[in-house]
């Protein structure tokens, strides 16, 4: 009765058999509770675009019921990796691991990336993210490009038209880059104001540090104000999230080890992140290195010590008073888009909201479906422009519904995506996307 | 695979976007919530209108190709697994609320509508649709009707069958029928509406339903009673009913279930209790207060350790939501969870609990039990591993005995999950030979070619539980 496809020798199938955690595959009992949480299922209404569907595809590939082909790989690529399906799953299926294992295998056997995706990926993953100095150089170059009006020139000559449309769009919303990074700007060590509560290490992030240097500087000032000594170990590197989520596990592990060492040597009590995507990755170093006897214990220590800046402030800090400086007669409305990884992996959704509600002079309104992915998800908006655009357009409908003047987020990817959404929807001038840390810093009443 | 001819004919009815037969689509429509069952369909189709469904049935009956209607595939009886191949028809694109009639208090909806969305919508209009299967956040109204689903509110408010007033359905040959209507009374001929409710997609395809709505209760109170003695909890259930109190909800969870549910929902439920009763009463505020006080007394009389009343509606909702996750949460214990649906008269709940535990011990299998205790509907759930055939064999033997025990206590093999494939071999135990003959006659009248969800409800022979390799 059961139709079992003849086990065709398929190298991807063989690789999947080795990499996929079969226990996790069978733990999915196909109840479908994750379906309503999944943005790609929501968009398409197609079972193959749901977590239950994707797990079934993976299992079918391992069981020999399906020969994994290009459509299989595409289905894995369509997943945002937002992991909203995980907290929704009563059976505790570790979907995030499964999709990483599947993508790792797909990557190894992939021949069909569009040329520019390949070039960008290789350059970025191997040549750039792991090297803070090169990142800063890139930041410098970007800055030069932005400053000199070279950007203007290139834009007007249409050179950018050679790139896909969304890259061009992204170029327009990119913030001013910096060639220095947070350490270059303010140095490595910063003392707490008043009595010291703990010593924390700032994870500066690679993209964060060149595109959002101000946010890193502001994070340090918020933390010292709230009673923390802050160290920014200079030997830290990229968190490895983009690598891990795109199937480059080996590289991700290398980066993890460098970070473990950097923060251990710095002697910190907590490792603070201000980017949900990076923080979630750091928090899962224990899983990343669980098979490495030499690093396992360190990784466990590290994972337990990683905390999001909002949560650290709310749970352990002396929260300063906040008053929005532009508060006039009319109250400004603010709203918030959850960072998926901050919410679904780091479990931090209450803390950012508590902080926002404490700011005088603004009114916080909850946006409908704030917990649903905005469609950015790392490099998703580059590789899956269409799905990403559809998701974003739904998101912006809800954003409009809040009539907020300020849209806050806690992750650089989300921030850029929100800026993109505002631009696309013609909301510029009415709504502004800001990192939560910057907003709090701006509103902080210094003691 | 379906032939090119059939594919073209289906495409001419549905458009090219309405027919898919690629391997990914077939694999993702080869299962439902039932463990250890998987068979690929030949194609998957997505109709958008009743006319299209009718067109599809004409094509399929001409070629004698089986059709399996599918809502969200959450059923637990193999109901949407295409065991004889053919076409799976996904009803999700027919998901409109056609009308809410505020004068007659009825709603007319398409079958692919999500149950929870519907419930939330009518609540927004100040009305109430009680059937709330635990899967309601995922399931469809069509699936609920086809399975006659119950829920946490079944005790006081009844199950899906009590709310279906009329149906539009497409017969196997493509003809369209309408039954019932916005009518509180209708005795024109046999009650085809009730016949189609619970027919598991074997008699017709439901394409529209007219549902009864009622005014919502004025107030609600939710409480937890915790026991160190499982049977004390079970006896409480019978005592409450005996005292002529009908709570809206009366659910039981045993120790293992409490633990896994709490691991998932982090509610701080006590891990050292042998059972919890989750009780909700609704109605006029004074009546609710009075009932809750009496129920609390009965619980204490049966030696409940602790009684807690939810402080806020949010807390109450959290408790109910956590209860809804029970079945899936049990998958935390072992990779495979096989759940049954034995139902007994409410006075026999404690006896049934005793039987379940005796049988589990006898066969050396782990069975956790939770369920709609107030309905007499228990869900003994075996946590096991599909990869261990010997253990699965013992589980099956244990469940067979549990069915026997249920029937000898005056109960049934399934209270709400349906017969489908997995209970088909046991149906005769409940309805007898004459009952089966009669049901076969009904099936024959509706579906002479046997193309509507074949292999379900009626077993070819007195088979054992079907266990397939890939599951
Ligand atoms: C975690 C969990 C909890 C559950 N809790 C409950 C519960 O509390 N109470 C309860 O009763 N059940 C429960 N169930 C079982 C299941 O969810 C219900 O049977 C539900 O009604 C199925 O809805 P569905 O849309 O998923 O239907 P499906 O599973 O897709 O289909 C179910 C049956 O209906 C038929 N069908 C679907 N649509 C149509 C149509 N338009 N026309 C004709 N036939 C059709 C199918 O052929 C199939 O036989 C639970 C299941 C899970 C996984
Ligand atoms: S909620 Fe969990 S167990 Fe249920 S289908 Fe989704 S992943 Fe599988
Ligand atoms: S990670 Fe997000 S997009 Fe991917 S399956 Fe889970 S919920 Fe869907």
Task: Describe this structure as you would to a colleague.
The complex is a heterodimer of chains A (447) and B (471). Chain A has helices at 11-19, 22-27, 39-44, 51-63, 70-78, 85-88, 95-108, 115-128, 132-147, 150-157, 165-173, 181-186, 206-211, 213-225, 241-245, 249-265, 276-283, 285-288, 296-305, 309-316, 340-344, 350-357, 380-383, 385-402, 412-424, 436-443, and strands at residues 189-190, 198-203, 228-231, 270-273, 306-308, 321-323, 332-336, 359-360, 362-364, 406-409, 432-435, 444-445. With 447 residues, chain A is of the alpha/beta class. Chain A folds into four domains: 2-108, Fumarate Reductase Iron-sulfur Protein, Chain B, domain 2, CATH 1.10.1060; 115-172, no CATH class; 181-316, Glutathione S-transferase Yfyf (Class Pi), Chain A, domain 2 (Up-down Bundle), CATH 1.20.1050; 322-443, Rossmann fold (3-Layer(aba) Sandwich). In chain A, strands 1-3-2-4-5 form a five-stranded mixed β-sheet. Residues 1-7 and 157-163 of chain A have low confidence and may be disordered. By secondary structure, chain B is α+β, with helices and mostly antiparallel strands. Chain B is 36% helix and 19% strand. Chain B has helices spanning 4-14, 23-27, 50-63, 115-124, 141-147, 154-157, 192-196, 230-242, 255-265, 285-301, 313-324, 326-329, 349-363, 389-408, 427-446; strands at residues 19-20, 43-45, 67-70, 87-90, 97-101, 106-109, 164-170, 176-180, 205-212, 219-227, 249-254, 275-283, 304-309, 336-339, 367-372, 377-384. In chain B, strand 7 (164-170) and strand 8 form a beta hairpin. In chain B, helix 1 (4-14) packs antiparallel against helix 3, helix 8 (230-242) runs antiparallel to helix 13 (349-363) and helix 13 packs antiparallel against helix 14 (389-408). The model of chain B is unreliable at 463-471 (pLDDT under 50). The interface between A and B is large, with 36 and 50 residues. The complex binds flavin-adenine dinucleotide and iron/sulfur cluster (SF4) (2 copies). The site of one iron/sulfur cluster (SF4) has 14 residues of chain A, from helix 3 and helix 4.
